[in-house]
Each structure stands twice: as C-alpha cells, then as structure tokens.
Amino acid sequence: MATLSPNQKTLHAVFSNSSPWPPRKVRSEPISRSKYLARSELYPAWSSVDDAKNRAVQLSDAAVKEFEKSSSKVQAKTGKIELYSMKYYAACTFGGLLACGLTHTAVTPLDLVKCRRQVDSKMYKGNFEAWGKIARAEGFRGIYTGWGPTFWGYSVQGAFKYGGYEFFKKFYSDLVGEQNAYKYKTLLYLSASASAEFIADVGLCPFEAVKVRMQTTIPPFAKGTLDGVSTITNKEGFGGLYKGLYPLWGRQIPYTMMKFASFETAVEMIYDALPGKKSDYGKAAQTAVSFTGGYIAGILCAIVSHPADVMVSKLNANRQPGEAFGAATSRIYKDIGPMGLWNGLPVRIVMIGTLTGLQWMIYDYFKIFMGLPTTGGAPPPEEAKA
C-alpha cells in the first residue's frame, strides 16, 4: 500500500531554498584583525589535565632547585668527599641508616601480619582481614605494633650493612687487584655483603628479638623497646636477646648476599640495555634505575631467605628457656613441616621487593645529595699497559 506522506528527499527539494534570509557568503580572504579583537593564541582552550601536568612540572622543578640548594650548602660545610676516605664511609653509613631505618618502619603493618601468620598460619586469612581485626581489638596504633624496635634495630643494621659493604668491597678489591676484582666481581659483591651483614646482625639481633615478641604476643608483652629489652633480660638474662642470632645470620646473610650481588648485576644490565653510558643520565634517571634494580633484587632475596625468616619468628616466639638451638629448631620443624617454612611468602615478596627498591633509591639519593656517585654500573677498568 503506497504511503500518502512525502519522503525526506521531496521535502528537502521543496523547502531548501525557501529561507527568508539570503544565502551566507563564504569569505575567501582572511579576516582583518581589529585592534580590539583578542589574539586567540594567547587564550588557548583550558585543559584540567594539562594544568595538572604543568603544576606537577613546576613543583618538580621547585623541589629539584631546593634539593640542589640544600645539597650545595651541605657539601660546602663537609668539603669535597674523596672516594674511600673516612668521610666517604661515614656518609655511606649514615645513608644506610636512613635507607633501612625509615623503610622497615614504614612497612611495619605488613611485617606484623607476616610474623603473626608465620607463628600461626590460621590466625588471619589475608592482610586486610588481619588489619581490620587488629584495629578493632587494639586500635589504629596496634597496626604499628613493634615500630620502635624495628626503627632502632634496622637503623643500626642498615648503617653497618651499607657502610660495611662499601668498606669490604674496596678492601677485597685491593687484595686481589683491580683486574681480578672486575673479573670476579660477583664473588666480590657476595664476599663484601656477607662480611658486612655478619657484623650488622650483631647490632640488629636484640631489637629483632623484642620486635618479634611484641608482634607475636597478644596483647604485646611490652609497651616499647626499652621495656621489651628490660623484660627479656630480667627473665632470661642478656643471652635472651641473642638466642635468635644463629637463625638471624642464616636468614640475613644469604638475603644480603643476594640483595647486593643481584642489585649490582641488575643495575649493570639496565645500563647496558640503555643507550649511552651511566654518566649520560641525570640524577632522577639514576635513582629510578636504583629503585628498579633494588626491586628485582628484593624479590630474589625474599625467596632465598624466607625459610630462615620463618624459623627466626618461631624461635623468638616459641623457644623455651634453656632449650638448645638445635633441639628447638628440630621441634619447630616437626610441628610445621617443610611447607610451614613458606608461610607468608607472598606477603614477604611484596614487602621485601618494595622495601629493597626504596632502600636503594634512598641510599643512592643520599649519595647524590653528598656529591657522591650512585652505586653500580661502573665501567670496566682500563687495561694495564705493558
């Protein structure tokens, strides 16, 4: 059946030329600008994204200027720091103190859940559930249980670890000679880091004992670091603070060996993959490389050291007074089995990866602040002339 209404083409043909207004002329020549007409290039369209980017760039530039200003003042007071001088080792020691003390304290909530799950794997199903239960039972401060001994212990450990690593790396390098040091550089990194960590753990152990007991007893057995030290020594003597030293060495020495050797290797590989040399890159780029290399190293050393980390937590929480180290270790292993040694590994990978990346970034940023070169990525030594 045919429709009686006109179609769209018919309507357009009839009414398209029926407008009462004359057709608009298209101007081919450019419009002459009046002196009262604003210049459009001075008033571009506003973009919130571009505005945010510009503000971020301005803040970044201001931060860089303040950093360089403060750095120049400090370097003027300390004077030029010669590599491998006493000032150099002192700067590296303080940089290590900042890097480890601040970062370990920042991740105390993760460490708290990890330690409690290592002692009792059924206590919490996940991190968020754990933090929720802790906050409801102990308040928000409960999430940071153990932050005091964590800060003091890892500040001491970081100082001896990073400062000692720089010292032993140079010491062993001088013993074997520059060419052999480069040829066997991985062995050099492993030896230097192991030597430094052996000493650093002696300073860490008392604080680690207090930290683990505070985090694994509900409510915490002590109100703070000094109270914890006093409580342990009154009940068990001074040796109570060091009953976890052997497993701490077992955890920390392989951890640190992996941490430093893999970091140095990762940084070298990153610079080899990038165009140009390390010296071609600015401060921000070099610290970004340090963070990336540190994160890679952190994942590897978390896996290597995790069984010993579980045993440290168990020994500090469950070792009986007067019980021998071997007997306690054997008893705990029978209770938890081989799979129990891997409790809390995913949490620890996230924690240690982030932790190690931030530590290397802070450490190298502090070295830049003091006018020193960043760690890793050094060129091979020049061939000795015949």
TrEMBL record:
It comes from Glonium stellatum. Transport of phosphate groups from the cytosol to the mitochondrial matrix. Keywords: Membrane, Mitochondrion, Mitochondrion inner membrane, Repeat, Transmembrane, Transmembrane helix, Transport. It comes from the Eukaryota. InterPro entries: MCP_dom_sf (IPR023395), MCP_transmembrane (IPR018108), SLC25A3/Pic2/Mir1-like (IPR044677). One of its GO terms (cellular component) is mitochondrial inner membrane. GO terms for molecular function: phosphate transmembrane transporter activity. It is a multi-pass membrane protein. One of its GO terms (biological process) is mitochondrial phosphate ion transmembrane transport. Solcar repeats lie at residues 87-171, 184-269, 285-369. Transmembrane segments: none annotated. SUPFAM superfamilies: Mitochondrial carrier. Coiled coil: none annotated. Belongs to the mitochondrial carrier (TC 2.A.29) family. It is found in: Mitochondrion inner membrane. This is Mitochondrial carrier.
